[in-house]
Amino acid sequence: MNVEAIRDLIEHARGEGRHVLLETEGLELLDAMEIARPACRFLRSSADLLASERTGVPGDTAVIKVVSPQILHKSDLGGIAVVPNCRADIATAIHDIDTRLKGHAISGFLLMEFIRHDAALGGELLAGLRWTPEFGPVVTIGAGGVTTEFLAHGLQRGRDAAIFSPHLPIDAVGGMLDRVSAVAMATRGFRGRAPRTSLSEITGLAAKLMALARAVMPQGIAEFEINPLAVTASGLFALDVLVTLSREWPSPPPPRPLHKIGRLLHPRSAALVGVSEQLNPGRIILNNLLRDGFDPAAITVVKPGVTSVAGCRAVPDVASLPERVDLFVLAVNAAQVPALLGDIVAHEKAESVIVIPGGLDEKSGTEAIVRGMREALIESRTTDWQGPIVNGGNCLGVRSRPGRYDTLFIPEYKMPASRGPASPVAVISQSGAFGISRASRMGRLNPRYVITVGNQMDVTVGDYLSFLKDERSLELFAVYVEGFKPMDGMRFMEAARQITASGRTVVLYRAGRTVEGARATASHTASIAGDYRVTRALCEQAGVVVADTLEDFDDLVRLFTLLRDRAARGIRLAALSNAGFESVALADALGPLLLAPFTSETRRRIHEILAASRIDSLVDVHNPLDVTPMADAATYEAAARALLADDTVDAALIGCVPMTAALQTLPSGVAHGENLQRADSVTARLARLRDETTKPWVAVVDAGELYDPMAAVLESAAIPTFRTADRAVRMLSAFVLHRARAVQYTCRHAFDRESYIHRSWSSGQT
């Protein structure tokens, strides 16, 4: 690749005040990248053509394209014509285009060789590259031509396009490209038709785009797109190229003392401002600190006119703090924040600050004050002290179990504090309301940290994940993001990659999925690889589990936490139920999972278990195994043990429709003799089974609220429990695929189910 020639093209366009390359310049860029394109000739007008005896391009057909910095999609405006390759027809076409586009700044016309190819799926590709503010450069390869966007929205995700970072290893790129429908159609033979091209040739093109990104992004090119890329027997030909230049590019943020996140999460001293006599947010925060065991002698309240509040020292203003504190919480209205933060910086009174209120930038008349506050914060970073880090504003702050504090200013009667041991979970949420609602819904899970970052005026989502990745006591990171700060997506992705490589898990819910629809962009690439698609694709490549819905997010966090000590060797599932419909439902919902075939020894053992219960005449031994409503608790336990002991089984689902009289599935009550807490109940037996096996498995209690206690007892035994079989299978599938991917590949590689199955068969695992 001739990088110097590419840079010269960029500088020439900028010298003329343009932020887009003319197509003639785009063709020169293709030449510098060693990408094949049609022979062509530039004509300022038809007069240039008539001045020569020949057209100057080979073949019996020619293509005429308008060249204009104002027209990026020529076909949309009638700026392209395909005509016989003779001077008269070409001159007529040029005249027609010139007339049709009168009023546009036309630099001339391109007379191009017509490349014959099949325009059906697989005959035209799109190859694009663009700079994203959150993740940096992103490559997209998918179906091309005028139906690009239609196909992108109509095909299954992952089959429509490959979206990846240019920093990904090239061997991982080949696997992703092979799953794209248009690429598969181009590289595989169908019904006697030979492949149009090879996967290695398309992968080679991807490598050139990746090299271009590394060479000239972000300072040079903002978007680069070939569409269509014709797939011919002679190779790949770029028939049209669009290149827009960067108008601005990110500058590195000023250095921030991010090591002080440790002070914020584990403070030894704290100060609060905004504490009243009534139960306002500041007072609730103070009460929470005292409730959680924070030393009152290490707490200072900034409040004029008093010397103590709730047994804690009080001072009249920030300057009167006797020493620098690890954490300062600002629970005041937005108008007071700039002056308070300015005082904290001026007097060097805190290592970290949590700003609760929002609206700092929105309040009219405070622009100068806010600007001064930010400048003071930046200036403090140049001192030996390095200034404080700031969480927020517009947040609920932090609940840190190891730090013994909680700023989530929710009264305890509204959100009781969990008294159990802390779970190895960190919740990082851009939304305060999301953070507390998730913490409330987690039930018995008690996250070590619930961090709400608000508008990320200083410390970001990526900063927290990067810091917490080194805390080995954390097994799961549950993250909610509406939008990353510039380049913070890349920071987040790198931290997630390291977490996944260590055998731990990041679960992400990315909100704001339709924002990209409101952003006008020049290329089809941006349309089919919008912000959400990019976030999902790149994060999944880093090993992140991306939740489709809020319900999925809750279930995935619960599932991965409860099964954190379980490995999945593969994707073969065993299922057990006492209801035929449930067996059918879970088989229908298998998705990427496979039903384990069972060994002959397992089949023999199950037959003995059924015979001992005298239900062998009612049941055939197969997977899923339906033990009928006649099965008692001992039969359930024995059958489940047999399935989990089978070497062909990687994971299991144990379902129960609990209305049967054969099982103790209700709490003790006067209206019946059942007690699900009995040592011989099915719940007690399954709880013991959970402790005595190492494979991942989940339970299903498919019934109404009368059986909520049964589900709760199973969950309390660390058994993930769902209320329908199809949902259980879908969530278990996400767990198994994630764990199998971590085992079979590094987290940098996309998981290929087909290859995995092939390898399983070859190694005798299936």
Question: Would you mind describing this structure in some detail?
Answer:
This protein is an alpha/beta fold. It has a 7-stranded mixed beta sheet with strand order 13-14-12-11-15-16-17. The longest helix has 20 residues, at 725-744. It starts with a helix and ends with a helix.
Second rung of CATH, namely the architecture of the largest domain = 3-Layer(aba) Sandwich
Quickly count the helices: 25
| Total E-strand runs | 30
The fraction of residues in strands falls at 15-25%
Query: Which class of the largest domain in CATH terms?
Result: Alpha Beta
Largest sheet: 7 strands, mixed
* Overall number of domains: 5
- Provide the helix percentage: 25-40%
Mean pLDDT: 89
What spatial form do the alpha-carbon principal axes imply? flat
Fourth CATH level, the homologous superfamily of the largest domain: Succinyl-CoA synthetase domains
Summarize the structure.
The chain has 766 residues and is of the alpha/beta class. The chain folds into five domains: 3-113, Dna Ligase, domain 1, CATH 3.30.1490.20; 124-245, 2-Layer Sandwich (D-amino Acid Aminotransferase, Chain A, domain 1), CATH 3.30.470.20; 257-394, NAD(P)-binding Rossmann-like Domain (Rossmann fold, 3-Layer(aba) Sandwich); 418-562, 3-Layer(aba) Sandwich (Rossmann fold); 572-754, 3-Layer(aba) Sandwich (Rossmann fold), CATH 3.40.50.
